[in-house]
Design goal:
Number of strands: 0
Number of domains: 1
Shape: globular
Helix content: over 70%
CATH topology: Multidrug-efflux Transporter Regulator, Chain: A, Domain 2
CATH class: Mainly Alpha
CATH architecture: Orthogonal Bundle
């Protein structure tokens, strides 16, 4: 089981922007715009599982609450911090 998790992590790290956008069900332009604005810590061409989770969260926040990208990124930051704190408990 551990080998499969490692393989999945490697595959996720090698994803292109097109593949990441497809998985997150967003346009490449949507994802590219948020990368350029600095809402992702990644390099822009490689996506981690954390980046995919962040993109999905931002997408949902923008769609469900008609939030601006800036607000969605801030909210995603808060959710990530909550996740980190939960891991420490």
């Amino acid at each position: 089981m551990q080998k499969q998790e490692i393989l999945e992590a490697i595959l996720v790290e090698c994803m292109t922007i097109e593949e990441a956008a497809s998985i997150c069900k967003v346009d490449v332009a949507w994802l590219s715009c948020r990368i350029k604005e600095g809402y992702f810590m990644g390099k822009g061409e490689r996506f981690s599982s954390g980046d995919l989770l962040r993109a999905r969260r931002m997408r949902d926040i923008e769609r469900n609450f008609d939030a601006s990208p800036e607000l969605a990124a801030l909210f995603a930051d808060l959710l990530e911090e909550i996740d980190r704190l939960k891991m420490r408990i």
